[in-house]
């Protein structure tokens, strides 16, 4: 972290200093150069066609505890929001650069992965040793396959994976900087669930963190220690049933805050693109306040607030100069009279999760979010083009 900041550095330069420090200290992902080359070609292709392009970030980031990573901290995000949004952006004519957590949900294939059924359950053996879709799944699978093939064949979808928080930040910075030629036609839709904390490299163990001191004793013995000490140490480990584990045997993880780079993104990396961030909370009482605070602090264009328990049913749009705008999928109140439809934008506070029906909504909320974002993006482009700047 930035200890010893020289007092003569003006506060407005602190963000740049934090950026330089973070990116110098945390190594880039191995494939960054390859990804940058792919992203550059993709962006240039769509930029010269005058097309809108959206960078979607999706899925969670890992926080490695070791440099040769065996253990890491992770979060809940499966990438549903990002992958589903990508399909609706493609539908709306956007080229989509999909920066996603490796092995999280992908547009189109999401319909058949991470499902309750194994994907093999959608298939059966056909004539002459062929493999075909089950009859009841054929129509939907063909529909999804055609859309996927169309997006790929027309070079409208680029998939770039990341794993850790530092991979994510390196990739985001590089891709956002490449988006400059798009001007206001570039849209950044930051739906990834990014860790707020990390282990800085100077405090990260190179090798797997040990749960016993056997390795220390091994090293000591190699330097002339005794066999008796080895046996004594090896029998004591963290899996002992002793109710009170001494502090020396615990794994205490000390995390630093991840620098907030939204300011750098807004002011430096992608100064002309429209920037949409997401804010996730679990406490309904603070959601709108936190979303508005983020908007005021980073001065970007839209914060989409959502609650963990209701994120597939409602979100709130918080944007400069506009009242909070709730978007909801129509639903019938759980336990309410049949036909009682609660929907729309009238209710201006979070819905009670207990009133929601069981299971998944019939409508994907992204089918409502993307047209609303698209409308704001159109306004944004007009404003920038009229004024000559955002
Ligand atoms: O990936 P998912 O569909 O399970 O969840 C989506 C989400 C809740 C991660 C996303 O909508 C979101 O709020 N992302 C930002 C999280 C945050 O950093 O506050």
From TrEMBL:
GO terms for biological process: coenzyme A biosynthetic process. InterPro entries: CoaB-like_sf. Residues 219-229 have a biased composition (Polar residues). GO terms for molecular function: catalytic activity. It comes from the Eukaryota. Residues 219-242, 336-358 are annotated as: Disordered. SUPFAM superfamilies: CoaB-like. Gene3D superfamilies: CoaB-like (3.40.50.10300). This is DFP-domain-containing protein.
């Amino acid at each position: 972290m930035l200890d010893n900041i020289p007092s003569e550095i003006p506060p407005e330069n602190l963000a740049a200093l934090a950026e330089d420090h973070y990116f110098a200290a945390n190594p880039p992902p191995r494939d960054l150069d390859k990804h940058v080359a792919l992203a550059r070609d993709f962006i240039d292709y769509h930029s010269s066609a005058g097309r809108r392009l959206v960078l979607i970030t999706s899925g969670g980031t890992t926080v490695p505890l070791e440099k040769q990573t065996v253990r890491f901290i992770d979060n809940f995000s499966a990438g549903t929001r990002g992958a589903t949004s990508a399909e609706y952006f493609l539908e709306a004519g956007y080229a989509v650069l999909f920066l996603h957590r490796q092995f999280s949900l992908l547009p189109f294939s999401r319909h058949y992965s991470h499902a309750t059924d194994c994907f093999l359950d959608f298939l059966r053996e056909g004539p002459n040793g062929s493999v075909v879709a089950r009859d009841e799944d054929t129509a939907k699978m063909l529909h999804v396959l055609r859309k996927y093939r169309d997006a790929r064949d027309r070079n409208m979808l680029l998939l770039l994976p990341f794993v850790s928080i530092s991979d994510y930040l390196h990739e985001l910075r590089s891709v956002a900087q490449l988006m400059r030629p798009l001007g206001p036609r570039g849209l950044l839709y930051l739906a990834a669930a990014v860790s707020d904390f990390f282990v800085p490299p100077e405090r990260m163990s190179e090798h797997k963190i040990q749960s016993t001191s056997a390795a220390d004793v091994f090293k000591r013995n190699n330097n002339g220690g005794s066999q008796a000490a080895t046996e004594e140490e090896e029998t004591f480990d963290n899996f002992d049933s002793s109710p009170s584990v001494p502090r020396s045997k615990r794994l205490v993880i000390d995390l630093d805050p991840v620098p907030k780079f939204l300011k750098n993104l807004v002011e430096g990396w992608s100064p002309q693109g429209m920037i949409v961030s997401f804010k996730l909370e679990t406490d309904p009482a603070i959601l709108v306040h936190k979303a508005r605070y983020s908007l005021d602090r980073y001065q970007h264009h839209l914060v989409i607030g959502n609650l963990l328990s209701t994120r597939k049913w409602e979100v709130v749009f918080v944007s400069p100069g506009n009242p909070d705008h709730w978007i909801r999928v129509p639903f019938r109140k759980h336990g309410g009279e049949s036909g009682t439809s609660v929907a729309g934008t009238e209710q201006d506070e979070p819905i009670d999760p207990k009133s929601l029906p069981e299971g998944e909504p019939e409508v994907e909320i992204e089918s409502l979010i993307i047209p609303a974002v698209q409308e704001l993006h159109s306004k944004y482009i007009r404003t920038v083009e009229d004024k000559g700047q955002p």
